[in-house]
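Q: How would the structure tokens look for this protein?
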Amino acid sequence: MKILLYISLALSLFFTSLLSAQDFKGIATYKSQRKMDIQMDSTQMNDEMHQQMMAMLKKQFEKEYTLDFNKNESLYKEAENLAAPTGNTSGMQIVIAGSGEGDILYKNLTENRYATQSDVFGKIFLINDTLEQPEWKLEKETKNIGEYTCFKATFKRKVMMSSSMTMSVNSKEEPKEPEQKEVEQTVTAWYTLQIPVKHGPGNYSGLPGLILEVSDGSETILCSRIIINPKGGVSIEEPKKGKKVNQKEFETILEKKMKEMDEQFNSGRRDDGHSIEIRIGG
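A: Here is the predicted structure in token form.
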């Protein structure tokens, strides 16, 4: 059985090398889901408020993205939709920090670089930096995603994580900062050799085929639709707008902005409303 698997993989890699010479283009649609670990005080929130809050959070964390790609470049951004405006519900307001909504991510595999256009509280930044090169481990497992046969790959990384999402509901107490600790995180991806490009959703790339599913344990991104060589072509235009910074500089700016938002939020809370603040660990 193992011999047949190795032969199948070898043949797939051979045909992939032949196909990679072609001008491969496509559009992939992905949907993301995030696990939520929320600590609540039942004395401050009844069942109805809890259900409303969970519904609002689910909508916030279930996003749809498109990945336009050719052999060497890709453009990843949130899909446009006509969703209803997110107003207050029964006086409840949710403020989410670090959602990355509206970001446009351009990757150039030939030049080993990326450019991200990001709107941080009304100010646009353009982050230019080098692509990370994770040490993917190609595993033996396979599975089907739609009509595509996918192979498993993993890599490990060190990340700073919060113990959980923290929430304050109409509380007069000073909110506690979530406890941060360094943990080893395993990223699992499923890629298909039937689409011989090294792209994937978000910052993920570098495998022998298109990544159709990836999970880091807290967030899962799954491909729901693929159009290969669409009649109208694909649109890949590198973003140019925004203040130019590298990734480290941007993270420092973002941390400062988060602290400023925390101070404004805490000083502006009203005792007669229900304000909820969610911080995402990582």
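The helical segments are 2-19, 47-61, 247-267.

The chain has one domain: 2-34+63-86+102-156+182-267.

Upvote if useful.
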